[in-house]
Amino acid sequence: MTNTLWQGQLRDGLAAMDLSLNDGQQQQLLAFLGLLNKWNRAYNLTAVRDEREMVSRQLLDSLSILPWVTTDHLLDVGAGGGLPGIPLAIALPAKRFTLLDSNGKKTRFLNQCVLELGLDNVEVIHGRAEDCSPDEPFTRISSRAFTALENLVNWCGDLLANEGEFLAMKGQFPDDEVAALPAGWQVRSSHSLDVPGADGERHLLVIARAENWR
């Protein structure tokens, strides 16, 4: 019953968002959701436990930022249960994704997802953002329900290319967090996200170094 429900919700949600994913990608997304639901009971990967809300609040919400993933290699910090990183990687198989989290249980889950779903374009790193040393900085870094914007730029600023952008997913527009951004950082743009089936507001904030803001 659950899989049938999810299949219909995903198909209708993708159509409403004008996203075209093939049958194989949709099956991968549903398989990921099944893994997330199963592992969540023991690992507390996400607060969403109502199976009727999972497609909207986990898959469609993650996919809502697809138009802004314009880099060949994206870093997802505080990847947790793989949101938005895993759904984005399924939707964009030609791009590379690095998922970073300091929680060992969560990175074990992410590695299991990569293995079971055959995600050759995903790398999982267990560690803190401050301790991460990539070969080259990232031009896009995503975060979802990770931390305040001030912490995001302070902890991860060194991982972002000089001309790069943070893609910070939030619920209500975080006026206080924007006001607390350190000098040298600015909200380049903000976007209200329309996620089918989701209650409440959803926003994407694109944050960049102020000297690169035009």
Q: What features would you describe in this structure?
A:
- By secondary structure, the protein is an alpha/beta fold.
- The chain contains seven helices and seven strands; from the N terminus they run H-H-H-E-H-E-H-E-E-H-E-H-E-E.
- The chain has helices spanning 2-16, 23-43, 54-63, 85-91, 104-117, 149-156, 175-179, and strands at 73-77, 96-101, 122-126, 138-144, 160-170, 185-192, 203-209.
- It has a seven-stranded mixed β-sheet with strand order 3-2-1-4-5-7-6, with helices on both faces.
- Strand 1 (73-77), helix 4 and strand 2 (96-101) form a beta-alpha-beta unit.
- Helix 1 (2-16) packs parallel to helix 3.
- The termini are far apart.
- The relative contact order is 0.14.
- The model has no long low-confidence stretch (mean pLDDT 92).
- Pfam families: GidB.
- Its EC number is 2.1.1.170.
Secondary-structure map:
Elements: H1 2-16, H2 23-43, H3 54-63, E1 73-77, H4 85-91, E2 96-101, H5 104-117, E3 122-126, E4 138-144, H6 149-156, E5 160-170, H7 175-179, E6 185-192, E7 203-209
Parallel strand pairs: 1-2, 1-4, 2-3, 4-5
Antiparallel strand pairs: 5-7, 6-7
Give a concise summary.
Helix content is 37%, strand content 23%.
The strands making up the biggest β-sheet line up spatially as 3-2-1-4-5-7-6
User: How many β-strand stretches?
Assistant: 7
Please identify the structural class as seen in this structure.
alpha/beta
Over all CA atoms, what is the radius of gyration? 16 Å
The helix/strand series, from N terminus to C terminus, equals HHHEHEHEEHEHEE
Q: Helix segment count?
A: 7
Shape: globular
Strand content: 15-25%
Instruction: Please mark out the parts with pLDDT under 50 across 5 or more consecutive residues, or reply none.
Output: none
Helical percent range?
25-40%
Major pleated sheet = 7 strands, mixed
Straight-line distance between termini: 51 Å
Query: pLDDT average, as an integer?
Result: 92
